[in-house]
Amino acid sequence: MPRRNTPDHTIDAFHRGGFFLVQPAHKGHRAGMDAMLLAAMVPDDFSGVLADLGAGAGAAGMAVLARCAIARATLVEKSAEMAGFARQSLALQQNVRFRDRIEVLEADVALAGAQRRAIGLQDRSFDFVIMNPPFNSSQDRRTPDAMKAEAHVMEDGLFERWLRTASAILKPDGRLALIARPQSLADILKALANRFGGIGIVPVLPKPEAAAIRIIVTAERGSRAGLSIWPPIVLRDGKSQDFSVKAAALINGEASLTTDN
Amino acid sequence: MPRRNTPDHTIDAFHRGGFFLVQPAHKGHRAGMDAMLLAAMVPDDFSGVLADLGAGAGAAGMAVLARCAIARATLVEKSAEMAGFARQSLALQQNVRFRDRIEVLEADVALAGAQRRAIGLQDRSFDFVIMNPPFNSSQDRRTPDAMKAEAHVMEDGLFERWLRTASAILKPDGRLALIARPQSLADILKALANRFGGIGIVPVLPKPEAAAIRIIVTAERGSRAGLSIWPPIVLRDGKSQDFSVKAAALINGEASLTTDN
Questions:
Q1: Which domain holds residue B30?
Q2: Which residues 194-213 of chain B have a CB within 8 Å of chain A?
Q3: What does pTM read for this prediction?
Q4: Which end of chain B is more exposed for a tag (fewer CB within 10 A), N or C?
Q5: pLDDT tens across A59-98, in order?
Q6: Could you tell me if residue B257 is inside a domain?
Q7: Number of folded domains in chain B?
Q8: d(CA A123, CA B90)
Q9: Is A3 domain-assigned?
């Protein structure tokens, strides 16, 4: 992703120049492959309202709207600084085509009930929720910088709180996609139970014969369908450092990946 | 697997004729690929004591001992008729090399505490437990024949009871492998929690771009290591009906698959 450097932020191209993101240059969570793979789980013909929970600078939500021409999105981000980067991204001339379809909401995804509604997340108001939650467990080595730590350190019960919110704000047959580390699978399935069904798991392998470094999990609100495990996305399948054809298409917004049968 | 028919049972070759199994001809659960893949999760150099829980006619346990020359096994099977087939298999001249290393125990895996110890399953007495539990949920269409139904119909809480037994009878650092349907993953992870760690999941795909039809789950008793998802076993990778090279090697006892890093 080519980058133009400025003192405190960068402007990074995604989808081979299809849209651009203003991001903190030296601190905070910088978006990349994970956000693009997550966005690829929304079907091409999606035309509803999307919530990107823990949106950071808005990479995943913008990637969905860059591909789904009439969809709308709300980016929900707790950090005022990251929400500010999302607003700067939307102000870029290169992103003008979805500027009017995206709203930035500075709010804590973990809020519940009346507090959640008060900050603007209404019950049963979204067709699709995506989330790329903070992914380092609190037992992992702490990252030095505070904003980066906020984005990366997983608190106990995070999936329970975030999926409670996702379930509440989705319409009855709304869909969910999240990207996380395999280590979180048991917590994710526990938090999905009794809220979501039709769970699909897509392992993301760095190369053909290596263990997954990420899992993408999809689900449908209120569904009673069983769990499925899908063929993996293999990021690099040869000896070169290039992405595989399939991974590149997903990361660059040229294909979507659905886990419906 | 070539078969010689007789009125009420068949004698089936496994591991390309490496060992033979006496099985009911027309009813009951007949062993095949699942049992062979499960057995492949035990490393070649395993030399301890194995328990095959819900062993049926003993396919998986015998497959381990056919490959691991000095290991010993206890086959635990509730059905008197299936346990009888296991004993007939051990009596075959072709299986003589592991006859003295296998014990058949007619017992219900779901028993707990003193009852379980009384029937011969002592606490902390096994190095490895394998299980291929009944896999149809009670909501599925019932199979017509009673013995087959007993082998295939999953009761609620089955994984909780079977993994409670596995945890109890394993030595402190003992290992577990099971094969199940993907739909059971949440139940399995819930029952493993607080008993096992270092969980590894291997999806079994019928072909490269299809959802998994089975999962193999491995774990270590008392481990605190995180969960991993491994590259899938792809059963058939071409247009022919032949097994892939990797699947054939595992099914025929020519390779084992470990999920240690």
A1: 7-251
A2: 199-201, 203, 205, 208-212
A3: 0.89
A4: C
A5: 999 999 999 999 999 999 999 999 999 999 999 999 998 8
A6: no
A7: 1
A8: 63
A9: no
